[in-house]
Amino acid sequence: MVDLQDQTEKIREEINAAIHEVIDSTQFIGGEKVHQFCETLGDYLGVHHVIPCNSGTDALQIAMMALGIGPGDEVITPDFTYFATAEVVGLLGATPVFVDVDKDHFTILPEDIERAITSKTKAIVPVHLFGQAANMEAIMKIADAHSVYIIEDCAQSMGCTITEGEFVGKSTGNLGDIGCFSFFPSKNLGAFGDGGAITTNNPELAQACRQIANHGQGKRYYHDRLGVNSRLDAIQAAILQVKLNYLDNYIVERQRAASKYDEVLAPYEWIMTPKRLPYCNHSFHQYVVRMDYELRKEVITMLRSYNVAHNIYYPLPLQEQKAMAIFPKRNCPNTTEICQEVLALPMHTELTDDQIEYIASIFKKVAP
User: Fold this and answer.
1) In this predicted structure, what is the pLDDT of residue 366?
2) Is 145 in the same domain as 223?
3) Domain identity same for 76 and 195
4) Average pLDDT across the chain, whole number
5) How many distinct structural domains can be found in the chain?
6) Which of 164, 227, 263, 294 could form a disulfide linkage to 212, CB 3.0–4.6 angstroms apart?
7) Tens digit of pLDDT for each residue in 77-134?
8) Using one digit for the tens of pLDDT, what is the confidence trace for 260-295?
9) Of 209, 244, 279, which residue sits at a domain end?
């Protein structure tokens, strides 16, 4: 699904030099490389505070802890997203409230958020899925009207910016109260292991997140609150600093690959290629098509026979996962439908036109 070998080979000397600088410094936890990366990422996203942590999942949990989310609180989350978004809500003793998504763009529906809000709602977690931004103008109006927090799940949206409307020019992660990013290796900005970051323009929330990520310490050995041990190590920060210099080009290459996919898949009327939202650029963390369930089974069989990578993001609505059985259910018909139709094709910076044409040629062997 992602060719990290060829991507790395192009910047290997820079990566090796950055790693050796950390080794020579012996500052393996924290230190100048972590500080430098956070400063640079903050400038790139246009946010005042970047708090590094161990993963995107930790970023979500720390953000919710900083906002005081816990037992008795409800947190609105899309029914169609990766499990971690709702998992951390349950881990903190709060209740995830599942909301439907737009079946053409996979982003959370503001009108269903409005229907789901109660007096117990503490936060909304819009997920900027597959590389496109949720409708933050509408969501922020709802949040303001009901005095609830917004935690942006930006695990898949690095490089996505708003191009129209009230927030034009702003990046995801610089819109709500807190943003949460993942640097999992396959992400648009990926480390050589796990990593994550929290973003905010609120200094009090930033301080709370920094403390929580470091055992709740205000200063060393003085613990002002309960926290966790969640750090971005210096080697990962050094690698990310190098790759951040190439991020805009990585996004362009993903967009180029997506446009080529659109072109070669256009003759197949039974395949719905990704639709673009008008108010943001699509950074294409994933290229996800839709098709009839029975045809999808046939396509998967064919792709396997030709050794072509593929995946289903996501096969089940979150509320249908066994781990979510203890929480209330809501009717989310769009999510139910698209879980039966979605199929992700290879998407990365190194995809060539020939590779994409080869993948598309396999679809000729499927008879709708």
Assistant:
1) 86
2) yes
3) yes
4) 97
5) 2
6) 227
7) 999 999 999 999 999 999 999 999 999 999 999 999 999 999 999 999 999 999 999 9
8) 999 999 999 999 999 999 999 999 999 999 999 999
9) 244
User: Maximum CA pair distance of the chain?
Assistant: 67
CA 308 to chain centre: 24
Same domain as 294, residue 234: no
Last residue of a domain, one of 244, 274, 302: 244
Q: Is the pLDDT of residue 365 over 90?
A: no
Extract the tokens encoding 320: 């249908």
**Within this chain, do residues 258 and 282 fall inside the same structural domain, yes or no?**
yes
- One domain for residues 59 and 161: yes
**Confidence (pLDDT) at 261:** 98
Tell me the DSSP string of 224-244.
Answer: -S---B---BHHHHHHHHHHH
Residue 252 has pLDDT above 80, yes or no: yes
Q: Which domain holds residue 280?
A: 248-363
pTM, to two decimals: 0.97
DSSP 80: S
The verdict on 263 and 173 lying in the same domain is no
Whether 368 maps to a domain, the answer reads no
Task: Give yes or no: residues 277 and 194 share one domain.
Answer: no
Rounded to an integer, the average pLDDT of 349-354 is 97
| Helix locations, 220-326, DSSP H | 234-244, 247-265, 293-305
